[in-house]
């Protein structure tokens, strides 16, 4: 005959089970959503939100209670979030959000600047969003040691601790001057919980997704706040001084074509002209006109190749009055145009440094020339003698 348990004893056992479940499933309250306050800007500024790439690595080590790998791409969510927050703040004259589907997978900073110029905005935002998750397995957790219910330990051991955070990195570039005026990384805890039975009940899925979206919102608000503070005194298109003007003269000669197609299209000459314009805009060097170089060399029976010949370079440099020379090449590799430039000290013929980069659209050649010119000047600033700075 089966003996029935008294009602009080059944209630006591049930209470123990509820206590065990509650003790083993501890989760924080949801984080509140922050708000972005408007900032009064001195200048009318428009901005393009072009590309925020998802670089999350959320695969957690295999195990009995591991959550599955998340496949949610935060790229579009991050772009819309930062774009909408800036738009709603009312601080900017115009906010343009480039649709996620229009961003190529291999988008670079150059691609983003090209999009901003296409949209005719002052600034462009690009960056990365990263959701990180960590997992630890706890074979004996603190509920196992509560007096009187040690025998119940198998019901909640092992448990697992699941932690996550969202990291948002934003870079803001002036589309005209190409100056990076803002670069910050903001991190926010997404969730932190010790879970019991939630794996079986799938409760943590909804909780972590909610917390991840909240954390993304709060990182975007914090980044937006810092950005607006930076823009409060910023003048669009006005780059800060990269290098004080020097009493140095640079010449840019036609780039060597790497194929018959490049030569036929005249990309070598076009690239040289664009680099000449970029150096003139920078104000770092005095730039000798390319036509003047040709006229002087023709008059004195020299050729362009004599500029890079060690035995003639010094004589030609003295004739032209130049200190540095920029030479390069243009090659077609697959669907890309690859540019390689070398910065030479004409008096010694020594290559001080070189830069390489490429584009997929010929229309981006001007932007590439400006970006590479900026890199050359920045590298020259670091390598030249302190007495010349």
Summarize the helices and strands and which ones pair or pack:
Elements: H1 7-24, E1 46-54, H2 75-89, E2 94-97, H3 109-119, E3 123-138, E4 159-174, E5 180-195, H4 198-201, H5 203-231, E6 249-252, E7 256-257, H6 260-265, H7 267-282, E8 286-287, H8 290-299, H9 310-320, E9 324-333, E10 336-345, E11 350-359, H10 365-383
Parallel strand pairs: 1-2, 1-3, 6-8, 6-9, 7-9
Antiparallel strand pairs: 3-4, 4-5, 9-10, 10-11
Instruction: Give a short account of the largest sheet.
Output: 6 strands, mixed
How many domains, as an integer? 2
- The structure class reads alpha/beta
The level-1 CATH class of the largest domain? Alpha Beta
Low-confidence runs (pLDDT<50, min 5 residues)? 19-29, 59-71, 141-157
- Quaternary arrangement of the chains shown? single chain
* Rg (CA only): 31 Å
Supply the CATH architecture of the largest domain: 3-Layer(aba) Sandwich
Please provide the ordered H/E string of secondary-structure elements: HEHEHEEEHHEEHHEHHEEEH
Shape: elongated
CATH topology of the largest domain: Rossmann fold
Q: Helical element count?
A: 10
Report, as a whole number of angstroms, the end-to-end distance. 100 Å
Strand content: 25-35%
Overall pLDDT confidence: 77
**How much helicity do the residues have?**
25-40%
Count of extended strands: 11
């Amino acid at each position: 005959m089966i003996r029935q348990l008294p009602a009080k004893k059944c209630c006591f056992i049930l209470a123990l089970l509820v206590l065990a479940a509650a003790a083993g499933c501890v989760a924080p309250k949801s984080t509140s959503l922050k708000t972005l306050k408007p900032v009064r800007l001195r200048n009318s500024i428009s901005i393009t939100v072009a590309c925020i790439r998802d670089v999350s690595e959320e695969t957690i080590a295999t195990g009995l209670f591991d959550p599955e790998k998340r496949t949610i791409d935060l790229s579009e969510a991050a772009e819309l979030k930062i774009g909408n927050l800036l738009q709603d703040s009312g601080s900017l004259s115009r906010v343009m959000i480039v649709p996620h589907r229009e961003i190529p997978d291999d988008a670079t900073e150059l691609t983003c600047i090209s999009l901003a110029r296409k949209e005719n905005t002052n600034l462009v935002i690009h960056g990365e969003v990263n959701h990180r998750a960590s997992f630890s397995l706890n074979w004996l957790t603190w509920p196992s040691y509560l007096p009187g219910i040690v025998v119940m330990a198998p019901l909640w051991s092992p448990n697992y601790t699941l932690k996550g955070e969202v990291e948002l990195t934003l870079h803001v570039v002036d589309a005209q001057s190409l100056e990076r005026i803002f670069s910050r990384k903001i991190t926010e805890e997404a969730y932190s919980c010790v879970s019991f039975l939630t794996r079986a009940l799938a409760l943590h899925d909804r909780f972590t997704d909610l917390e991840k979206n909240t954390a993304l919102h709060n990182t975007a608000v914090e980044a937006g706040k810092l950005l607006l503070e930076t823009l409060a005194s910023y003048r669009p298109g006005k780059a800060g001084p990269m290098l004080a003007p020097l009493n140095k003269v640079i010449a840019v000669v036609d780039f060597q074509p790497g194929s018959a197609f490049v030569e036929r299209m005249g990309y070598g000459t076009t690239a040289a002209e664009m680099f000449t314009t970029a150096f003139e805009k920078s104000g770092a060097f005095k730039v000798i006109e390319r036509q003047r170089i040709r006229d002087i060399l023709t008059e004195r029976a020299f050729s362009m190749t004599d500029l890079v010949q060690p035995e003639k370079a010094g004589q030609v440099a003295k004739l032209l009055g130049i200190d540095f020379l920029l030479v390069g090449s243009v090659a077609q590799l697959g669907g890309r145009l690859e540019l390689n430039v070398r910065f030479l000290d004409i008096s010694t013929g020594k290559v001080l440094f070189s830069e390489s980069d490429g584009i997929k659209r010929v229309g981006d050649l001007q932007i590439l020339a400006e970006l590479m010119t900026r890199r050359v000047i920045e590298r020259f600033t670091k390598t030249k003698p302190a007495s010349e700075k």
